[in-house]
Write a structure and sequence with these properties.
Length: 216
C-alpha cells in the first residue's frame, strides 16, 4: 500500500517549570462522567501489518479543512504506525460492537484475525465492516505529544456511513446502546406562539459571535 504523505513528526508540548508545577489530579473520574462514542483507530504499518486500538478520545477540530483530533497513547504500536505512515482510519462502532471494542483494547496480537475487516482502495487503514456504523479515512496533519499521550490531528478525505445501525456509547466505565438511551421520550415541545401574539412579534436574539459549535 503506497502512501504519498510524509510521516508526521510529533511536536513537543511546552515544558512546565518545576516551581510552577501544580499538584497532579486523577482526571479519570472526570472523563468517566463524560459519555462518548467508541471508535477503533486503524492503520497499516510500514511492514504491511494492520494495527489498531480502541479510542474514545475523539473530537472535531474544523469543518474547513475537515479535521478531527485523536488522543492516543504515545507508546502504543498503533500510534507509532499512524505517525510513521501518516494514514489512519477511524471506525465508529455500532451498538453491537462491544466485543470488538474489548478486543482492540485488550492488546491481543491476533485481533485482526478475530474480526471482519477489509482495506478498500484509498483507505487510511482497515475498515471494520461488521462492527462500524461510520468510518472516516484521513491523513495525519500534525501531532503534539503531551505527557503519556499524543494528540493526532487528522484531515479527513472520506466518510462512509451506515444509517441502519445506531452508535455504541461508553461512560461511567460501562457501555450503553444509543437505542436504549433514546428510548424514553423527552417532554413535549412547547406549542409555537399564535400568529399576531406579542411573543410571535418579538424577533429571536441572534447567536453571539463564537457560539457556533462544530458538530462531530
Amino acid at each position: 500500500m503506497s502512501h504519498t504523505s510524509r510521516p508526521a513528526q510529533p511536536l513537543r508540548a511546552p515544558q512546565t517549570s518545576s516551581g510552577a508545577a501544580a499538584a497532579a489530579a486523577d482526571i479519570r473520574p472526570l472523563m468517566s462522567a463524560f459519555p462518548s462514542g467508541v471508535s477503533v483507530v486503524t492503520t497499516v504499518a510500514a511492514d504491511s501489518e494492520p494495527r489498531g486500538m480502541t479510542c474514545s478520545s475523539l473530537a472535531s477540530v474544523a469543518l474547513d479543512p475537515p479535521t478531527v483530533v485523536l488522543c492516543l497513547r504515545t507508546q502504543s504500536p498503533t500510534t507509532q504506525a499512524v505517525l510513521e505512515t501518516g494514514q489512519v482510519a477511524v471506525n465508529l462502532l455500532h451498538e453491537e460492537g462491544r466485543p470488538v471494542s474489548d478486543l482492540f483494547a485488550s492488546g491481543d496480537p491476533d485481533r485482526f484475525a478475530r474480526t471482519e475487516w477489509r482495506l478498500p482502495l484509498g483507505a487510511g487503514g482497515p475498515h471494520l465492516t461488521e462492527a462500524a456504523h461510520a468510518i472516516a479515512d484521513g491523513e495525519v496533519a500534525g501531532a503534539v505529544e503531551f505527557g503519556d499521550h499524543t494528540a493526532v490531528f487528522v484531515r479527513v478525505h472520506r466518510v462512509s456511513l451506515h444509517d441502519a445501525v445506531e452508535p455504541l456509547l461508553y461512560g461511567k466505565r460501562r457501555y450503553a446502546r444509543w437505542s436504549d438511551a433514546t428510548a424514553v421520550p423527552g417532554p413535549p415541545a412547547a406549542a409555537p406562539p399564535a400568529a399576531g401574539s406579542a411573543a410571535a412579534r418579538i424577533p429571536a436574539p441572534s447567536a453571539p459571535e463564537g457560539a457556533a459549535r462544530v458538530r462531530p
